[in-house]
Design brief:
With 343 residues, the protein is of the alpha/beta class. The chain is built from 13 helices and 11 strands. The chain is globular and about 60 Å long. It is 38% helix and 17% strand. It has 2 domains: 220 residues, D-Maltodextrin-Binding Protein, domain 2 (3-Layer(aba) Sandwich); 103 residues, D-Maltodextrin-Binding Protein, domain 2, CATH 3.40.190.
Length: 343
């Protein structure tokens, strides 16, 4: 297999939902016109908002908002902080340095429990970033994976629980009907097919895209969001990323929260429609290391914007699956109804 610099950079920099912090280049603007996100007529009246973002897919939805904020055209006056580790966001929310944060949904639930109900989830921003990849074999369904070997990251974390849920939902015993090999780091996944060409690989974005780019004839076999939906229907969805806010901030600045949600939705829609412009921002702001990789990965990153009752129904169903697999994965208890803003 060929492993050019773009692959090595991506795989060493990106984990499941976070990667190391890179310096943002505030001179780079969104797509063609970041100012189109909003029109702040009176800069002096803009509300200050500290927005913490995890690098990786969870942070992609904020990029066009970030660029517009740097241009001074947003309704709120945002200060962005890019983080590569969950514990940095946990500390910032807990001590009040962050007002809003883009995080994994199970981390949001953990923060709700850690702060004794002190945060709410405003919107879901990312569905599945997990895909099952093949280097040649084309089973027609998950059930046809019986007897197969699957390499996956995230033992004792969300990827394992998601994989087990999907396998079990298709009538397979994860402990006996398939052979699951867990790797400690996503950077180990590209080497799998060199030694085990018949294996399947469960990989997150943008690692999955990197693997496919470097292995001719390989392809995405199953999207975990689709497979989740085949099992759960409308009772839950594979909702992996979200934005949360401290309840104290919500109560003190309701208009700023409303402005944020409107601007954030527009930012996500821009990421979905302007792939090249958003890919350039991914590299500039350190969300994904290389724009070329980001451009290929963006359509596979499950960007979405879900709020209110729909968010509550589908996200609570997802968190229940995580809780049933391991209560610690959501902070030891299911969040209450007050966790879901606007529901």
């Amino acid at each position: 297999m060929k492993k050019p610099a773009v692959l090595l950079a991506a795989l060493t920099a990106v984990t499941l939902l976070a990667s190391p912090v890179y310096a943002a280049d505030s001179a780079v603007s969104s797509a063609e016109n970041p100012a189109s996100l909003s029109s702040a007529e009176d800069p002096a009246s803009r509300e200050a908002v500290n927005f913490y973002v995890l690098s990786g897919p969870t942070g992609i939805g904020a990029l066009n908002l970030w660029a517009a904020s740097d241009a001074g055209t947003t309704a709120n006056d945002y200060t962005f902080t890019l983080n590569g580790a969950n514990d940095e966001v946990v500390a910032a929310i807990s001590n009040g340095s962050a007002d809003i944060a883009a995080v994994a949904t199970n981390l949001a639930a953990t923060l709700y429990n850690k702060t004794e109900g002190g945060v709410s989830v405003l919107a879901v921003n990312t569905t599945s970033v997990l895909s099952l990849l093949s280097s040649g074999e084309k089973p027609e369904s998950i059930a046809d994976l019986k007897g197969s070997t699957i390499y996956a990251p995230g033992q004792g974390a969300n990827p394992e629980y998601i994989l087990r849920y999907v396998l079990s939902g298709n009538g397979l015993d994860p402990d006996n009907d398939v052979d699951i090999h867990f790797v400690a780091e996503g950077s180990e996944l590209p080497g799998v097919w060199a030694s085990d060409p018949d294996a399947f690989i469960l990989a997150p974005q943008p690692v999955a895209t990197s693997i496919l780019m470097q292995n001719e004839g390989s392809f995405k076999l199953f999207d975990m969001a689709d497979e989740w939906h085949n099992i759960s229907g409308d009772d839950s969805a594979l909702m992996m990323g979200c934005v949360i806010a401290r309840n104290e901030f919500i109560e003190e600045h309701p208009d700023a929260v409303a402005d944020f949600l409107a601007e954030y939705q527009t930012s996500i829609e821009s990421a979905e429609t302007d792939i090249e412009g958003t890919a350039a921002l991914c590299e500039s702001y350190g969300i994904i290391p290389k724009a070329a990789l980001a451009a290929k990965a963006l359509p596979e990153c499950g960007l979405t914007f879900v709020t209110g009752e729909e968010m509550k129904t589908q996200l609570s169903g997802y968190l229940q699956v995580m809780y049933d697999a391991n209560a610690k994965s959501v902070g030891g208890a299911m969040p209450g109804d007050d966790f879901y803003y606007g529901a």
